[in-house]
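Supplementary material to the annual report.
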Amino acid sequence: MRFKQDFFEQLTGFYSQVAPLGLSNPHWLAWSHDAASLVGLSTPSESLLQGFAGNQQIEGAAYYAQVYSGHQFGGYTPRLGDGRSIILGEALGPQGAWDVALKGAGPTPYSRQGDGRAVMRSAVREFLVSEALHHLGVPTTRALAVIGSDMPVWRESQETAATTVRLARSHIRFGHFEYFSYSEQGSKTKLKQLLDFTITQHYPQFSCDSGGYIAWFRQVVTDTAELIALWQAIGFAHGVMNTDNMSILGESFDFGPFAFLDTFKEDFVCNHSDTTGRYAFNQQPGIGLWNLQQLAQALAPVIESDDLIDALELYQPALVRAYLEKMGDKLGLPERPLEQVGASDLQLVGGFTQLLEKSQLDYTNGWRKLGALDPSSEHCSLRNDFIDVVGFDHWYQAYRARLGPVEDVESWQKLRDLANPKYILRNYLAQEAIVAVEEGDLQPLQDLFQVLQKPFDEQVDKNHYAKRPPKWGQGLIMSCSS
Ligand SMILES: Nc1ncnc2c1ncn2[C@@H]1O[C@H](COP(=O)(O)OP(=O)(O)OP(=O)(O)O)[C@@H](O)[C@H]1O
Ligand SMILES: [Mg+2]
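Predicted assembly:
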C-alpha cells in the first residue's frame, strides 16, 4: 500500500498519534477482494496480516485517532473521538485515496472506559454489512478484511478480539464539526480549517469562500437525504444514528446493531438500547434532518444562518424524490413528472408496505415476488399471500392503472429483479456464520459473503439464503456492546 497523509499533515491538533496494541495469534477471518483492489491490493499476505493486526508497523502509515464529539440519542457528548479505531492514512488506489482504519486496534486517548477492542461478532457483522450495502448500491464505508485473534475480551461474557480493516473516503463525521464548534469553543479558525480541508479533499467543485461553503452544505443536505432514502427503500435500519456516526460524505457509517427488515414492521427498532424507539426504522428520515440541523448549528459561526436554514429546506424534497425514484424502480412505474404523480405514487408504495405489514410478510421477498408477477394479467396470484385479499385487489387495480400497458413482460420482470434484491444480510444469517466462526469453521462466512456480493442475481443452489428467518432468528435485536 502507498499512503498519502493529508489529514495527518494538514490537520495537526485534530487527532492523537497512537500505536495499535496488537493481537495475539492473528488470523484472517475474511477478505474482500473487491475492497482490496480499491487500495491496490490483491491477495492477503503474512506481512499484511501482522500489519493489520497491529503487530508490525506498516510502511508509510501514520497511526492516529481523530477527535470528534456528537449528539448521542439526542444529548450532546462534548468529547468522543476514535476510541477503538486507528487510522493509518489515505491509501492510494486506482480510483483515488481511501482512509484505512483498524477498528478494534486497542485503546486510544479517546477510549474513556472502553478497552479499545471490537469483538469478533461485531467485526464480522461490520465486514458483511459494509460489503453487502455496497453491492446493493448504497453508499457506504467498505471493509477490506477481518482479523481474528485468541485474545480474550469481556462484554456480557468472555469473547475474542478482532479487527475490521475499514476503508472510507473520509472518516470526517458531523461530530467533527460539532467538536470544533462547541468543545473547542471560539476556535473558529479550526472549524474553518476543517471545512476547507473537507471541501478541498472531497468537494473540489466548491470554493473555500462563503459562496462555496453554502453550496457545499446544500450538497451535504441532499447527499444525506438521498442516503436515507436508499435505506428506507432497501429496508435497512441503522440503529445508532448519532451525529458521530454520520459521515459528512453521506455514506453509511458505523455498523453496530443494524438490521435489514425481514417481517415488515415500519416502527421496527433494531437496537436493544434504544428504549424510546428514537432510531426506529420509520424515524430515520426525521432523524437524518435532526442530525443535519445539529450540523447546521455547528456551522453557524462560519455560514450565515439564513443560508443554513434555506439549505435544510432541501432535505425533505430531496429525500422524497430519491425515495420515489427507487420505489418507482421497484414497482416498475413509468416515469412521470413528480408534481403530477408524487403524492399518488407515495400512496401506492405505502399501500403495498401496509399490506405487507398487515400480513406480516417479509419486506425483501415481498418486493421480489411483486417484480416477478405478470402485470399484464388482471389476475394476480400474489393476492393469496395476503390476509386482506380485498385490500390487495384494490391496491393491485390502482397499481395496474398507474403501470399502464406492459408490452414485454419478461423484460419488465428482469428490470424489476435489478431493483428488488433477492439476498440481503439477514441478522440470522450473520448469526449463523458467526457461530460457525466461533467453532472454527470459516466456510459459512465465506459462503454468505459470496452470496451477498450478487444480491440481485438468481444464484444456483442459494435459495436458502433468501429464506425468512427461523423462529429463533425473527426480529433479532442487537445490543450496542460490541
Ligand atoms: N470498546 C471500546 N473501547 C473504547 N472506546 C469505544 C469502544 N466502543 C466504542 N467506543 C467509543 O465510543 C464512542 C461511540 O461508539 P460507537 O459504537 O458509535 O463507535 P464505534 O463503533 O466504536 O466506531 P466508529 O464510529 O468509528 O465506527 C466512540 O467514540 C467509540 O470510539
Ligand atoms: Mg461510532
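The radius of gyration is 23 Å.
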